[in-house]
Amino acid sequence: MSIALLLAIVAPAQEPAPVAPSFRLDEVGLAGRSDPVAGSWIVHRSLPDGSFAEVTALDSGATIVAMVRAGVPLPPDRVANLSPAAAAALRLSETPLVPVRVRPVTPSPQDRHVLQGGGAVTRLDAPPALLVALRRKLPALRPTLEMAVHSVAPPRVAKPLRPVSPPAPARPPVSSKYMVQIAALSDSNRAAALAKSVGGVVRGAGPLYRVQAGPFATRVAADTARADLARRGFGDARIIAQD
After folding, report:
1. Per-residue pLDDT reduced to its tens digit, 195-230
2. What are residue 241's DSSP bridge partners?
3. How far apart are the C-alpha atoms of 28 and 103, rounded to whole Å?
4. DSSP structure string for 194-229
5. Among 15, 185, 202, 227, which residue is least crowded by beta carbons within 10 Å?
6. Which position has the higher pLDDT, 144 or 230?
7. What are the backbone angles phi and psi of residue 162, rounded to the nearest 5°?
8. Which residues does residue 201 pair with via DSSP β-bridges, in sequence order?
9. Cα separation, 125 vs 219, whole angstroms
10. Based on the number of CB atoms within 10 Å of its own CB, is 179 exposed (0-12), middle (13-18) or buried (19 or more)?
11. In sequence order, which residues have a C-beta less than 8 Å from that of residue 107 and are 6 or more positions away?
């Protein structure tokens, strides 16, 4: 037996190099805004630089995929910072801090190409049931969020009261000459329901109950009301002049 073969048998087997564990994360917290940079980026303290993350706004459910920038310091009350393009894709307002869910994803080659070219990649909005479950992870963060959103209003200073002006003289009543008849029905219950739905009145008694709108002082006002009713599906409505 050769010496080389003997050493190979006696020497302990070399342990394989450790494999880095796969990074899994489903983190809920507050996100702020980053310095203006081109493209949809998210600054995160744990995700690898150049990786990709799915970000969901917990107020609206809007969801995007963004590239990750690491090595940028974050305040302790934030899980991430968003670039202006990422915030715009999430349809966020100017609120400094917003609740989000962040998790790593592996986008398709097409989405990766869009993001690396500075574009935005959106996903379907998260369903309401999921948003409710995710918001439950935020109770400890709500005071911080409310302080960021609601600033303390300055005290209101009472203005001196102005002298009360005398009431204007009452105008003489204007005669109402026009009605818009919508339908004539033999069922009083149906007539009452229709009148309620259009803001009209029921006139007359059996055998026909007339559903009318008005009265209107001018023909122009009646024409306007009839046109509105026609747009609502009552094309047979007609104007009736009263004596």
Report:
1. 777 777 887 766 777 888 777 778 888 888 888 877
2. 178
3. 9
4. HHHHHT-EEES-TT-EEEEEEEESSHHHHHHHHHHH
5. 15
6. 230
7. -85, 150
8. 212
9. 50
10. buried
11. 52, 65, 115, 121
Q: Can you tell me the distance from the alpha carbon of 87 to that of 120, in angstroms, rounded to the nearest whole number?
A: 10
Instruction: Please provide residue 12's backbone torsions phi and psi, each rounded to the nearest 5 degrees.
Output: -65, 145
The token pair that represents 39 in the structure block: 């493209």
Please give the pLDDT value at position 145: 46
pLDDT at 76: 85
Report which DSSP code applies to 150.
-
The two structure tokens encoding residue 203: 């006139």
Which among 76, 79, 91 is positioned nearest to 42, based on CA atoms? 79
Q: Give the number of other CB atoms < 10 A from CB of residue 56.
A: 23
Whose CA is closest to 80, among 134, 42, 38? 42
Q: How far apart are the first and last CA of the chain?
A: 129
Which amino acid appears at position 32 of this protein?
G
Quickly tell me which residue has 């980053």 as its tokens.
34
